[in-house]
């Protein structure tokens, strides 16, 4: 009999502690009058963002908020607003505009923009024609400078000003890659420029680091 009373008192104490935790939890069930009472073992908040255990303290509440969607790789721009030396997506490739002109097709025709651009990664020439009032995709393009630490199996080992390293950019092909490799092997301290757009990265140029910069 005494054992049964002790069990009941223990369960009552656990339930009271659970209610105390709920009263201090910032989650939505505090504002819900229809929220069910917690059990002695655990309670899950309605949005399942917080799980409150009957044996945990306030500092042990664990909130797990999911991150938002990633930023888009491109953004829209009206064709007439594009400019030479700017960027545009042509045939799914990020390009730099090297020439553009506007023409009309007949007396009542819509103005059209003729674009000539160069793929920023391959150097391939691409062309497109679009009505001036239509939107075209423009890639987000970034340029960052890194110190060259090493060249390992065809990849550049790089470090930024904050000491963060990256080793997923290939040595550029052709003369650029050959000259970069030769000067690095001569012991020169080099700074390389990495361009990134639409999920691709590439080394587009390099220079010798200023004396005393290391």
Automatic annotation (TrEMBL):
Signal peptide residues on this chain, from the entry's feature table: none
Matching InterPro entries: IF5A-like, IF5A-like_N, IF5A_C, NA-bd_OB-fold, Rib_uL2_dom2, Trans_elong_IF5A_hypusine_site, Translation_prot_SH3-like_sf
SUPFAM superfamilies recorded: Nucleic acid-binding proteins (SSF50249), Translation proteins SH3-like domain (SSF50104)
Superkingdom, natural source: Eukaryota
Pfam families: eIF-5a (PF01287), IF5A-like_N (PF21485)
A GO CC term attached to the entry: cytoplasm
One BP annotation, GO: translational frameshifting
Single GO MF descriptor: RNA binding
UniProt key word RNA-binding: yes
Keywords per UniProt: Cytoplasm, Elongation factor, Hypusine, Initiation factor, Protein biosynthesis, RNA-binding
Protein's cellular compartments: Cytoplasm
All copies of domain Translation initiation factor 5A C-terminal, residue ranges: 140-207
Family: Belongs to the eIF-5A family.
PANTHER family: TRANSLATION INITIATION FACTOR 5A FAMILY MEMBER
Name of protein: Eukaryotic translation initiation factor 5A
